[in-house]
UniProtKB/TrEMBL annotation:
<feature type="compositionally biased region" description="Low complexity">
    <location>
        <begin position="174"/>
        <end position="184"/>
    </location>
</feature>
<feature type="compositionally biased region" description="Low complexity">
    <location>
        <begin position="347"/>
        <end position="356"/>
    </location>
</feature>
<protein>
    <recommendedName>
        <fullName>Alpha/beta hydrolase fold-3 domain-containing protein</fullName>
    </recommendedName>
</protein>
<dbReference type="InterPro" id="IPR029058">
    <property type="entry name" value="AB_hydrolase_fold"/>
</dbReference>
<feature type="region of interest" description="Disordered">
    <location>
        <begin position="342"/>
        <end position="402"/>
    </location>
</feature>
<feature type="region of interest" description="Disordered">
    <location>
        <begin position="162"/>
        <end position="184"/>
    </location>
</feature>
Length: 469
């Protein structure tokens, strides 16, 4: 799995990138940038078109030790017109207890993960344009990997070019002096990276951090941590079960919601619960098997799903392929028989519908059996990254256990990551102490419940980042 989707394999596809001057764009956080705004780059994603990467505070990248924040928005680029602004605490340290205030450069990866939607002001859906096509998973994964590879192999090296010439022999101060290794210039340290994502961006940020956090830095960068706010780490339960019976509040919200309110829900501005995951699954995945990809459900890096993969989403009818008229034309059938055959093929019989329903019932995850998996793999040079999982309770007037879904997933993934640290990292060291291992694992992987306030989230993030960048 990892060998097929490591970002390094994509480096040959990213030789072409174009810089676009975007002076006409709305200048977000222009007051925090000396160069007056945001620089936007277009990055080629193989034969799948282009995505954009926005760079904030690019002038701060001149110092090779300044960390870069990789920001993954809560949803795909099709909802960019209502995306929340980049959290200000990612551009500067907001911790009120800090004695020093730091500004950070930031790269926003505008990945695609959407169903076809026209943009505001567009008279009709431009279905012929790749920009408005259906970008189901794994398109967002490929977009993220292309952007990450472009950043680490093409963009960031331009800020350190000429600073490190350690590949050539050092020059002697005198033609009579011997060349000594002690006169070699110091190597440029790897640039620290912090990855931040929420909701769908949290899914992608987690997968990227788990598969790109190396014990020995590669490509001149080193992932120092990942911050996830209300991320989704397991889509398999939603993909293999029927939608839950909507409560009266959900029914009233669906009946009164407008297109704008539906889009606002998708961005995570109103929080997600289990009902939301079921409403979104068919918009994000073309079939249930895509949800079983570990890059879409990162918990599957650490355990098996314990579920059978259905051929279609439970509660929906499987789409029957049309009958080829050329094949029917070669049959010696009357018009009535041909019409009956087409009707039977297009509409499933009652027996097939009942069997399909029985199959769906059999796939319902009542008591799934899950087996732990070893991650990171042996000799992979990967390590569990420093991680901060932030969860915010969904506001609700009803006591619904489904509203705790995101908190449950965050705690399950954090537990699996801590177990990996204790079982596979500390036990591999001679003389590792059990108590110390558990304490270190809890320090490296933290879960914190916060309210949906910028100040509280900013203080928690700022305090956590101070010891890691």
């Amino acid at each position: 799995m990892l060998s097929r989707r490591v970002p390094r394999a994509l480096s040959g596809l990213l030789s072409c990138s174009r810089f676009i001057s975007r002076n006409w764009r709305r200048r977000l956080f222009s007051s925090s940038s000396r160069d007056g705004g945001i620089k936007t780059w277009e990055v080629r994603c193989g034969s799948a078109g282009w995505i954009t990467v926005d760079i904030y505070n690019a002038h701060l990248l001149i110092a090779p030790t300044n960390p870069l924040i990789l920001y993954l928005p809560p949803t795909g680029a099709h909802l960019r017109h209502i995306h929340p602004e980049v959290p200000p605490f990612l551009l500067s340290n907001p911790n009120i207890l800090s004695t020093q205030k730091h500004q950070y450069p930031l790269a926003r990866i505008n990945y695609r993960w959407n169903i076809p939607h026209p943009v505001p002001g567009s008279p009709h859906l431009l279905s012929t344009s790749p920009k408005f096509a259906n970008h189901a998973f794994p398109t967002p994964l490929h977009d993220t990997l292309h952007a990450y590879t472009w950043l680490t192999t093409s963009f960031l090296p331009t800020f350190t070019a000429g600073r490190d010439d350690s590949s050539s022999p050092p020059r002697s101060p005198s033609p009579y002096a011997a060349v000594s290794s002690y006169t070699a210039p110091p190597r440029t340290p790897p640039r620290p990276l912090i990855i931040y994502g929420s909701f769908l961006g949290g899914t992608l940020a987690t997968s990227l951090a788990l598969t790109e956090s190396h014990t020995r830095p590669q490509g001149g960068v080193s992932i120092h941590g990942v911050i996830i706010h209300n991320g989704i780490f397991d889509w398999t339960v939603a993909a293999t079960s029927k939608p839950p019976t909507p409560t009266p509040s959900h029914l009233s919200n669906q009946a009164s919601s407008t297109r704008e309110q539906q889009e606002l829900l998708e961005t995570g501005a109103q929080g997600w619960d289990f009902h939301t995951l079921h409403r979104l699954k068919e918009k994000l995945f073309s079939n249930p098997s895509s949800a079983f990809d570990a890059f879409a459900s990162p918990i599957l890096f650490f355990r098996s799903s314990g579920l059978a993969i259905p051929s279609h989403f439970p509660g929906t009818e499987p789409v029957a392929p049309p009958i080829d008229d050329a094949i029917l034309g070669g049959l010696s059938l009357s018009d009535e028989e041909l019409a009956a055959l087409r009707e039977r093929h297009g509409a499933p019989s009652p027996s097939s519908s009942s069997s399909s329903s029985e199959e769906e019932e059999a796939l319902l995850p009542s008591t799934p059996r899950k087996s732990p998996l070893k991650f990171p793999p042996t000799d992979s040079n990967l390590r569990i990254p420093n991680s901060l999982f932030l969860t915010s309770p969904t506001p609700s007037t009803e006591e619904e256990p489904t509203t705790l879904e995101m908190q449950r997933q965050a705690h399950e993934l954090a537990t699996a990551m801590r177990r990996s640290i204790v079982m596979h990292e500390f036990r591999a060291r001679k003389g590792g102490r059990e108590i110390e291992a558990h304490a270190r694992s809890e320090e490296r992987v933290r879960v914190c419940e916060v309210r949906e306030t910028e100040m509280e989230i900013g203080n928690v993030v700022g305090e956590w980042m101070e010891g890691r960048v």
